[in-house]
């Protein structure tokens, strides 16, 4: 029997895709982002094993809310694509039973061709692009960014709908040239329905301390409204440049 390892679930999510959504947080991630606010989802062996039917039984009582709001099911993490076979079958089943909208929240650290079965039953991809500069990305996450950028290009080439999200951290990924280059890359893509800046916050620091880990961004402030607006402006300038090149 196919099982997945989950961290938690949310029945009335409103930020991880359109409408009201059931959000399933999978356990396990290969990145070690310095600002991760779900550090307790990183371990590949923690969490709870569940079957498809157990998850479906959690979704069913709230179907009217999801349907009436234009919402559906979002699978997040951790990193959901590490358990692609389970998520694929879950998406297939919710479509077969209830025709629910499906959203995959991913850091993109996978190969589009390898998880094509999953992407074929995914209506929307929420793709987190953490840093456009590779060396700075390695410092921030512990991994290079080539696979994330390749995933973005794969989604673009295969005409998949995506929202791109970027956590803005003062002094880490707010350099003007980096923001412009990020916008330029986004502008070169097809299928980007929405771009969101997520202001960095410290709400996950206590989880790091509970795990006994040093929090490397201790003392880094959240960006101000003006800093967020500046980032949007620079990224938009880059997007226009990227769109011209695309043409």
Summarize the model shown.
The protein is α/β, with parallel strands linked by helices and 247 residues long. It has helices at 52-59, 63-68, 84-98, 116-120, 134-141, 146-157, 176-187, 205-210, 225-246; strands at 3-13, 21-26, 48-51, 72-76, 101-106, 124-128, 162-168, 192-199. It starts with a strand and ends with a helix.
Order of helices and strands: EEEHHEHEHEHHEHEHH
Rg, Cα atoms, Å: 18 Å
User: What's the helix count?
Assistant: 9
**Biggest sheet overview:** 8 strands, mixed
Distance from N terminus to C terminus (CA atoms, Å) equals: 49 Å
List descriptors.
247 residues, alpha/beta, 8-stranded mixed sheet, 21% strand
Describe this structure in words.
This protein has helices at residues 52-59, 63-68, 84-98, 116-120, 134-141, 146-157, 176-187, 205-210, 225-246; strands at residues 3-13, 21-26, 48-51, 72-76, 101-106, 124-128, 162-168, 192-199. The protein is globular and about 50 Å long. 38% of the residues lie in helices and 21% in strands. Strand 5, helix 4 and strand 6 form a beta-alpha-beta unit. It has 9 helices and 8 strands. An 8-stranded mixed β-sheet has the order 3-1-2-4-5-6-7-8. By secondary structure, the chain is of the alpha/beta class. The relative contact order is 0.13.
């Amino acid at each position: 029997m196919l099982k997945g390892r989950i961290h938690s679930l949310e029945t009335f999510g409103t930020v991880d895709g359109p409408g009201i959504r059931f959000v399933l947080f999978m356990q396990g991630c290969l990145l070690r982002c310095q600002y991760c606010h779900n550090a307790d989802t990183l371990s590949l062996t923690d969490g709870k094993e569940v079957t498809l039917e157990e998850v479906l039984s959690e979704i069913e009582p709230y179907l009217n809310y999801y349907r009436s709001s234009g919402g559906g099911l979002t699978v997040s993490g951790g990193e959901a694509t590490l358990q692609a076979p389970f998520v694929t079958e879950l998406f297939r089943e919710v479509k077969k039973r209830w025709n629910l909208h499906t959203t995959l929240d991913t850091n993109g650290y996978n190969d589009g061709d390898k998880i094509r079965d999953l992407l074929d039953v995914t209506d929307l991809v929420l793709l987190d692009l953490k840093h456009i500069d590779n060396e700075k990305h390695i410092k921030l996450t512990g991994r290079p960014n080539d696979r994330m950028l390749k995933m973005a290009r794969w989604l673009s080439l295969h005409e998949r709908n995506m929202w791109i999200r970027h956590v803005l951290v003062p002094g880490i990924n707010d350099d003007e040239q980096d923001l412009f280059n990020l916008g330029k890359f986004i502008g070169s893509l097809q299928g980007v329905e929405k771009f969101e800046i997520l202001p960095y916050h410290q709400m996950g620091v206590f989880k790091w301390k509970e795990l006994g880990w040093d929090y490397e961004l201790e003392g880094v402030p959240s960006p101000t409204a003006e800093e967020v607006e500046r980032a949007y402006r620079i990224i938009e300038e880059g997007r226009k440049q990227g769109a011209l090149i695309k043409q």
